[in-house]
Amino acid sequence: MYESFYNLKRGPFDITPDPSFLFSTKRHNEALAALYYGVRWRKGFVVLTGQVGTGKTLLLRCLLQLLKQSKDVAYAYLFSSRLSPTEFLQYIVSDFGLPSGGKNKGELLFDLCNFVVNRGLNGLTTVLIVDEAHHLSAETLEEVRLLTNLETAEQKLLQIVLVGQPELDDKLDSVKLTQLKQRIAIRSHLEPLDQEDTKGYIESRLRLVRANSHTEILFPDKTIAAVFRHSRGIPRLINTICENALLSCYAKQLPSVTPEVIDEVARDFRLNVVRPAEVDKLGGFDEIDLQRAARILLDLYSSMNRPLTRDIDAPSPVAARARQA
Ligand SMILES: Nc1ncnc2c1ncn2[C@@H]1O[C@H](COP(=O)(O)OP(=O)(O)OP(=O)(O)O)[C@@H](O)[C@H]1O
Ligand SMILES: [Mg+2]
Q1: pLDDT value for 289
Q2: 240 lines ligand 1 (CB under 6 A)
Q3: How far, in Å, is the centroid of ligand 2 from the Cα of 165?
Q4: Which of 82, 179, 184, 233 could cross-link to 193 by cystine, CB 3.0-4.6 Å?
Q5: Which region among 69-78, 136-145, 273-282, 294-303 has the lowest average model confidence (pLDDT)?
Q6: Statement: residue 237 has pLDDT above 90
């Protein structure tokens, strides 16, 4: 809609993870290298985590592109991981092109192991990639652990890549999964972009879709600073904000995007409204919960006309404990 007005060949801020748009930040580079070399050097078990919308699926698609170039690699790619252990195995077996219908768990495991071991004996690499792995249940993660046991004296025969949101870290850190955690060979984490990378990110996307060599500045520095402030450097949010800002500026026939328009879009998308549950995810969970609980109790006390026993700004029990420690 706005493309020709702004001299663009296509929309620069599509939210599908398209590898041709990859902007190589230091962290994305390191994470992609960890995934790729983990697989190529047959490290066995690689884990990548990161907040929602930071680019994990995009990196997996880049990894798949790289792996497709090698004839010795076969992979199964699973992205809907709310599966029972049997469904999980069924999906993997059929993605490797083996018959899976009507087989029970033992038969599926047997076929899969045969397949992986035969390939390994022939010097071929076999990879299992699971996106959204934070949805895997403890039972299915136990199947993953069993699969990590497929090895010779020198190397792992099945390369396993698990990718997911930070809840995956929590699951892997749980006592129940200690055995699986000990098998992780490479573990990396994607963080949101900093302000400089946000600028590079926006400019690189615009460069890729520019229709001609005109170099009008569509997103001046102050506008980019506003995008960073509202998106907190999360690429998916950057895309949503920028896309909607372009639409809005086009409607107003503005030659470039202003910080005010970015603020409007952020307000429309309620980006600054953070529910307590999301605040927890952003960092200060225990402390915030306790403060909230204390406030509710104090409100309750005041509504019952009882005298207040603790000032609302007095340190919470957690802060007090931290000071004693
Ligand atoms: N380094 C990058 N270069 C270009 N685009 C990026 C980059 N990182 C993220 N993006 C873009 O941000 C958007 C979100 O990325 P993606 O879907 O990969 O996030 P995710 O971490 O898998 O999110 P979720 O946790 O919700 O699955 C996509 O449009 C993707 O193309
Ligand atoms: Mg994803």
Answers
A1: 45
A2: no
A3: 8
A4: 233
A5: 294-303
A6: yes
Q: Identify whether 141 is part of a domain.
A: yes
Whether 150 and 74 share a structural domain? yes
pLDDT higher at 293 or 126: 126
Nearest alpha-carbon partner for 190 in 68, 29, 61:
29
Question: What pLDDT does 176 receive?
Answer: 87
For ligand 1, atom 18, name the residue with the nearest CA: 55
Residues 49, 131, single domain; the answer is yes
Distances (CA, A) of 274 to 122, 200, 232, 269: 53, 27, 13, 11
Rounded CA-CA distance 97/107 in Å is 15
* CA 24 to ligand 1 center in whole angstroms: 12
Q: How far is the CA of 303 from the centre of ligand 2 (A)?
A: 46
pLDDT-based confidence at 315, cuts 50/70/90?
very low
What letter would DSSP give residue 21?
G
Q: How many domains does the chain have?
A: 3
Question: Which atom from ligand 1 is nearest to the alpha carbon of 28?
Answer: 1
Q: Output the residue whose Cα is nearest ligand 1's atom 1.
A: 23
- Answer yes or no: do 36 and 129 share one domain: yes
Query: Is the CB of residue 281 below 6 angstroms from any atom belonging to ligand 1?
Result: no
